[in-house]
Amino acid sequence: MFNDVSFSYVDNNIFNNFSCKINSNLISAIVGASGSGKSTMLDLMDGLISCDRGYVKIGSYNVSDKVRKNIGYLFQFPEEQIFNSSVYMEIEFGLKCFNCSDIDEKIRKSIKLVGLDESYLSLNPYKLSHGDMRKVALASVLAYDPDILILDEPTVGLDNKSKNDLIKLLKSLKNEYGKTIIIVSHDINFLLKFVDYVYLMKDGRIYLEGNKFDVFSNEDAMNTCGLIVPNLLHFSNLVFEKKGIKIGYRDEINDLIKDVYRYAKW
Predict the structure, then answer these.
(1) Cα atoms found within 13 Å of the Cα of residue 19, Cβ hemisphere only
(2) Is 135 buried (19+), middle (13-18) or exposed (0-12) by CB count in 10 A?
(3) Which of 169, 184, 223, 248 is buried most deeply by CB count within 10 Å?
(4) CA–CA distance from 218 to each of 108, 207, 238, 249 (Å)?
């Protein structure tokens, strides 16, 4: 929860009396054009920067309390949060910082969760591909089991298979483990496939919020905020506009094709 938050970078005022409630146990996306305040929101949530005025509350505690174990933050550039000479030591670092038990077991479980086998544990993370480096950074966060997971542009450097694997993992973390997941991404078509709730940002404020279909299908609002409606939703809007047929909104192309075929038989 952001409560009357104000924040500025020197002469650049980002938020002025900004308030927003982040839903628990959902996958929420924060979207908007560059400079709209998305990344600043994440930094405030993780306590990397402090409010000039107001407060940010996650669950039952204020972020200023520095209860960092409850939040896992995957940076946009994973090389910025990796600084150990082996993958094993990188994942181990956070576990030791938070005085976790069963460290070896947690390390091996987390590397498998992100789709890498245990052979990676002996490798130097700096010699991995950008995509695998991102997976190691995510494993190091998941290892200490935070309640809240924050991801900044998580698809950068990932191929389609890795993106689909990430979607499955995030859905599992929400559905099976009750995690609250917050994502900033410009990859709107990726977000459509799995997020529950969307905050559309413009000039340091929430321009529109709601379930993903209500927000992402609103072409006027999306265009005003410098974004493009996801391809599947744009097609559904176009069918309604041109043919007067409301086929509904889908987040997977196969489901949309089935709907189109069903209506075509009419």
Answers:
(1) 3
(2) buried
(3) 184
(4) 43, 12, 12, 12
Burial letters 29-46, b for 16+ CB under 10 A, else e: bbbbeeebbbbbbbbbbb
Residue with tokens 């409301």: 246
CA-CA distance, 227 to 221, in Å (whole number)? Answer: 9
Model's pTM, two decimal places? Answer: 0.86
> Which pLDDT band, with edges at 50, 70 and 90, does 8 fall under?
very high
Positive or negative CA dihedral for 250, 254, 259, 260? positive
Residue 162 to residue 165: CA distance in whole angstroms:
5
Q: What's the pLDDT at 234? A: 76
What gap in Å lies between CA 105 and CA 38, rounded to an integer?
Answer: 35
How many residues make up the chain in this entry? 266
pLDDT tens digit sequence for 230-250: 887 877 777 666 666 666 666
